[in-house]
Amino acid sequence: MDLFDWELGGGRGEGDASPGGGGCSWFTVVIVGVFVLLAVLVHTFFGFLRGLL
Question: For the purposes of burial, counting CB atoms within 10 Å of the CB of 42, is it exposed (0-12), middle (13-18) or buried (19 or more)?
Answer without folding.
Answer: exposed
